[in-house]
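Hi L., both proteins are below.
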Amino acid sequence: MAQGDVRIEHPNRKSRRSRTTRAIVVALLLVSDIMLVIVTVGGWEKIQGAKPVQLAYIVIYLLLAFYIGRWRSGLLPVAAAFAIILLIFAGIGGPAWFVRDKEGFADPLLDESIIGLLTLILIPLQVLLIAFAAKGFSQKWGVEVEHRVGSPRLT
């Protein structure tokens, strides 16, 4: 059988729920990425040792958003794993920014309380990202059905 005789279809990607879940996961990744950029730029001078990690997260979240937007369901557990790690970092790092909001500390580009608040807002965003990535993975976007050209389609 020639390569052109078979057509591959992904039936689980057609439902409104699957498309909505994909859009929400991509949106959560992008919003998290924007907040990471703001926190990174705003606190660049005072971030000690975490600069490479934050830059890597920004790039990774952009790549995850791009590929999940292209229905790469295998990356949903990866997105959830990165969200868990970022949740831990935000939970530890967020309160530390509020401690710096005292006399004697050098001021970052943005106010410490703003950076701390944005960092703490990342926590519920990551919880939502984990939940929706798990939901998307359970929707089995990667299921493929082969159809021979000329045969009737199953719906």
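That was the first. Here is the second:
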Amino acid sequence: MDLDAVLALDQTVRTLKNDSQTIQADQNRLSREIAKAPTPEAREEAKARGAALKQKIESLAAALAQQELALDEKLLELPNLPHPSVPVGKDDSENRVVREEGVKRNFAFTPQPHWDSGPRWGILDFDRG
């Protein structure tokens, strides 16, 4: 797994979010200026700037959605980190039992997995499934 790629995507997403929020703040400030514009020409100029900011926000939102999707896909590839107390071993034969809960059941028969007993009882049909 390429952790550098995940970190780069995360930085891109953070930058896009920051840029988007900055432009939205500019748009909010511009909206207040439109209401206080001294002349109709100044109001129209401010409206034009507002429309340009709106287009830029929409463009950034699309880019942000795309980058967030790419980041989510990369994050799904990362494995979960084991707890520091988990011992390192070559395979599950080196696992150690930390504790057991309840009383172990003893059966008068040999338990079988569902994939063996289900078809025999007619409640599972893997061929049709």
